[in-house]
Design goal:
Number of strands: 21
Catalytic activity: alpha-D-glucose 6-phosphate = beta-D-glucose 6-phosphate
Structural class: mainly beta
Helix content: under 10%
Oligomer: single chain
Strand order of the largest sheet: 6-7-8-9-21-18-17-12-15
Bound molecules: 6-O-phosphono-beta-D-glucopyranose
CATH architecture: Distorted Sandwich
Largest sheet: 9 strands, antiparallel
Strand content: 35-45%
GO molecular function: carbohydrate binding; glucose-6-phosphate 1-epimerase activity
Protein name: glucose-6-phosphate 1-epimerase
EC number: 5.1.3.15
GO cellular component, one term: cytoplasm
Shape: globular
CATH topology: Beta-galactosidase, Chain A, domain 5
Number of helices: 4
C-alpha cells in the first residue's frame, strides 16, 4: 500500500513510508518567523446536530445517472451511496452523497492523494472526517455547528457526464427543514466534481433562492495525505497576511508569512488572506498543486498531537472564504472553482522500485 493511501482503520505505521530525501524542509523551518508556542486546544469535538438523512436507491440512481465505468452510483464505504468516477486516463474519484464529500482521489498509478482520518465513520452519525468535506454556510466559529451543516446532510445527484476523458457529477443541496432550523434561508448549492484526466476539478455554485439577502462563509476542507507532516511543506504563501487561530479562533492574532516553504513543527491553524491562484503542497512523494478561482483564502491546518494517532499523516490545505462572507441578493449566484493535480517526484518514483539504490538512501536527521 502506498504511504499516502487512505488508512483503513488505524494510522499507517511510520516505518511503512519510503525513505525520505528532504532535509531541505527541515532547514527551511529554522528560517521561520512562525513558531506555534503551545499545543492545540484539546481533542477536536464535532458538535453536530443529527444528520439530515435520506433513503436513496443506488440502483435507481445508477440507472438514471450512471455512464458505464466512467460514472457509477453504488454503495461506497459504510454502504453510503457514492458516485465513482473513472477517467480514461485511469484516475478515480469517489464522492459520497452524505456531505457531498470527495472521499478518494487516486492517480492513474493508484496513488491516493486525499486522506481519511482513522476516526472517520461512515454511518452519518457525524461528518466524514477526511477527504474533501464542505464547510458551508459557515466556516466558523459562529452561531451554528462548527463548519456548518453541508457536510452533515445528504446531497442529491443533479446530473452527470460520461465524457470518458473527464467524467463528472453534479451534487445538489437545497434548503430543507433541517437546514432552515439552523439557517433561515432558501438556497441551492451545486457542487460539480470533474475528473479531468488525472486532475480533480471542483465547481461550487451557491444561489440565493430566497426573497431576502443571505451571507455565508465556506471552504473545501481538503485533507491531503503526507508521508510525514514534519517534512511536508506548502509553497505560495510567502508574504501573505494570515490569522493564527491556534490559541483562539475567535480572536486570532495577525501575522505575515515570511517563509517560502511553510513547514510544520507544531499545531497550525492559519487563515491566509488574499491567497494566490495556486499553492503547492509537497506531500513527501511529489507536489499537489491546488489552483483556484474565487476562493479568496487558504486555510492550513494540522492538529498536531491533539490527534496523536494520525497527525503525522495529513495536512489540510483548504480553499476558503472564511473571514469575509459572500453576500448574495435574491437570485444572485456565487461560484468558485478549484483544480487539483498531483505530480510525483521523479526520484520518488524511481526509489519506489529501487529502494536500495544509493541515490535513494538519503535520510533526514
Ligand atoms: O471538523 P474537522 O474536520 O475535525 O476539522 C476541524 C478544523 O478545521 C479547520 O478547518 C479549522 O481551521 C480548525 O480550526 C478546526 O479545528
Amino acid at each position: 500500500m502506498s504511504a499516502l493511501a487512505i488508512a483503513p482503520s488505524a494510522c499507517i505505521p511510520r516505518g511503512s513510508t519510503a525513505p525520505s530525501r528532504r532535509p531541505a524542509a527541515a532547514a527551511a523551518v529554522r528560517l521561520s518567523a512562525f513558531r506555534p508556542v503551545r499545543p492545540a486546544r484539546g481533542p477536536l469535538r464535532v458538535r453536530s446536530q443529527a444528520a439530515a438523512t435520506a433513503t436513496v436507491d443506488v440502483k435507481e440512481l445508477n440507472a438514471k445517472y450512471g455512464k458505464g465505468s466512467a460514472v457509477e452510483v453504488k454503495e461506497g464505504r459504510g454502504g453510503l451511496p457514492t458516485v465513482f468516477l473513472k477517467s480514461a486516463a485511469g484516475a478515480t474519484a469517489e464522492i459520497a452523497l452524505f456531505g457531498g464529500c470527495v472521499t478518494s482521489w487516486k492517480t492513474a498509478a493508484g496513488q491516493e492523494v486525499l486522506y481519511i482520518r482513522p476516526d472517520a465513520v461512515f454511518d452519518k452519525s457525524k461528518p466524514i472526517s477526511g477527504g474533501i468535506p464542505h464547510c458551508f454556510p459557515q466556516f466558523g466559529p459562529g452561531a451554528m455547528q462548527v463548519h456548518g451543516f453541508a457536510r452533515n446532510a445528504d446531497w442529491a445527484v443533479g446530473g452527470a457526464s460520461g465524457d470518458a476523458a473527464k467524467p463528472a457529477v453534479t451534487l445538489v443541496l437545497k434548503d430543507s427543514d433541517y437546514t432552515r432550523a439552523m439557517w433561515p434561508h432558501a438556497f441551492k448549492a451545486e457542487y460539480t466534481v470533474v475528473l479531468d484526466g488525472e486532475v480533480l476539478r471542483t465547481r461550487l455554485a451557491v444561489t440565493n433562492t430566497d426573497d431576502k439577502p443571505l451571507e455565508f462563509t465556506a471552504s473545501l476542507h481538503s485533507y491531503f495525505g503526507v508521508a510525514d507532516v514534519e517534512t511536508a511543506n506548502v509553497r505560495g504563501l510567502q508574504g501573505l497576511e494570515y490569522l493564527d487561530r491556534v490559541r483562539d479562533s475567535t480572536h486570532p492574532s495577525v501575522h505575515q508569512e515570511l517563509r517560502e516553504l511553510a513547514t510544520f513543527r507544531g499545531p497550525v491553524d492559519a487563515v491566509y488572506k488574499a491567497a494566490p491562484a495556486k499553492v503547492l503542497l509537497d506531500n513527501g512523494s511529489g507536489d499537489v498543486s491546488i489552483a483556484s478561482v474565487n476562493w479568496p483564502e487558504v486555510v492550513v491546518w494540522t492538529p498536531w498531537t491533539a490527534m496523536e494517532a494520525c497527525y503525522k499523516e495529513f495536512v489540510c490545505v483548504e480553499n476558503a472564504l472564511a473571514t469575509s462572507p459572500a453576500k448574495l441578493a435574491p437570485g444572485a449566484e456565487w461560484v468558485a472553482t478549484t483544480a487539483m493535480a498531483f505530480s510525483r517526484d521523479p526520484l520518488d518514483e524511481f526509489c519506489a522500485s529501487n529502494p536500495e539504490d544509493l541515490e535513494c538512501l538519503v535520510y533526514d536527521d
